[in-house]
Specification:
235 residues; alpha+beta; ten-stranded mixed beta sheet; 8 helices; 10 strands; globular
Length: 235
């Protein structure tokens, strides 16, 4: 990732968080935005910059906490516990702007771009994995089919903030560790980059298989995003 690509990612996140376009262009600084209508508390770390967004009461409680602490699930849960806080934990953020040539399989895999095959694959997978991959929420899909036309693995992306492609991938449980996800994730990433976007990979740190795949595809970890939701009635 060169400086230009990093600027694009920083712009996307600035807009997503409601910050000025250049807010995340200054490494070492923490941007703070009070949003008393928000039903969430968000902390972003990105290439040395940071941002904290949420209701005033949450930001006041977080004022003396460092970036390492605010990136932890336990910290946000503690900050928001009397407001019904719920936090699944941080998502690491990784990016690439490079097109790769090797899909790891034959030159002509059987690929579907239909949502129906994605949903059929999701029905085979554990709910938590389906939620993290969020393939049904994407806009463009690449699903690898076997000779019988059944889904083996899928990846997809949706355009985010107009300049970033948010990518996810999923493989049928009994067909993992065979390189299938690498095929569809490579095709998906390449398509996004060809469309002029930076590809973004988001996953929990403990999802080792996901990060091994991301590394294979050339994604570079640049930060993390931690989010706690609170009951709107208590904001």
């Amino acid at each position: 990732m060169d400086a230009h690509h990093l600027d694009i990612v920083a712009l996307a996140w600035s807009r997503a968080l409601g910050l000025p376009d250049t807010a995340l262009a200054r490494p070492g600084a923490r941007q703070v935005l009070v949003d008393d209508d928000a039903d969430r508390v968000q902390f972003l770390r990105l290439a040395g910059a940071g941002a904290l967004v949420g209701p005033r009461w949450a930001l006041e409680r977080a004022e003396d906490l460092d970036d390492d602490a605010l990136s932890e699930r336990s910290t946000l849960l503690d900050l928001t516990k009397d407001h019904g806080g719920s936090c699944p934990g941080p998502l690491l953020l990784a990016y690439t702007a490079e097109v790769g040539a090797d899909t790891g399989e034959s030159d002509d895999p059987m690929i579907s771009h239909d949502l129906a095959e994605v949903r059929a694959l999701e029905a085979l997978c554990p709910p938590d994995e389906v939620t993290e991959a969020a393939l049904s929420d994407r806009e463009r899909w690449f699903t690898l089919l076997d000779d019988a036309g059944s889904p083996v693995a899928a990846a997809g992306y949706r355009e985010w903030q107009g300049i970033v492609a948010d990518v996810g991938a999923l493989t049928a449980p009994d067909l993992r560790r065979r390189g299938h996800a690498a095929v569809v994730a490579r095709l998906t990433t390449n398509d996004a980059v060809d469309e002029g976007m930076i590809a973004q990979w988001r996953s929990h740190p403990e999802n080792i298989a996901s990060w091994q795949l991301a590394a294979t595809l050339g994604y570079q970890v640049l930060g993390s995003h931690t989010l706690a939701t609170v009951h709107r009635s208590s904001v």
